[in-house]
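Fold it.
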Amino acid sequence: MMGPGEIHIVQWNNLDAEVRGIAAFVNHLITVRGLNPAEILVLCPRRVIGYQIREQLSALEVPAHSFYHEESLEAEQAQLAFTLLRLFANAEDRVALRFWLGYGSPSWNRGEYARVRGVLFNLWPITSRDSSRGPKRRSENPKHKQTLKTL
């Protein structure tokens, strides 16, 4: 069982000083105090800042890993699969619905979404409008059919 840990709260003048300072402190913990890198946890609220710290640690030849949930959704197929999962779990998930309705359109189907936005979300299969035909259901949309097949 591990013993008590340490918490340090430090304020920096700017982001660059913070990144360099945190990396130097982690390096100190490893090289001077003999800690194993796996025993050190740096909490960071933003991925961009965390990546800068990781890069600085790498420059000091300190092994580092980042664990941000967004990383698993960087691939387009993962975004689509996650969107479908969210909609199957909750058909009223507005963020997932917005992504699903706009996916594949350069304008994210802004006009169509504005028309659908006020409708009850139990009608979530409506994905786009063609003024000559009315609502187009997901099952009629070739883009969505292909997406479902590849998932």
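The helical segments are 15-31, 47-59, 76-89, 94-102, 110-116, 142-150.
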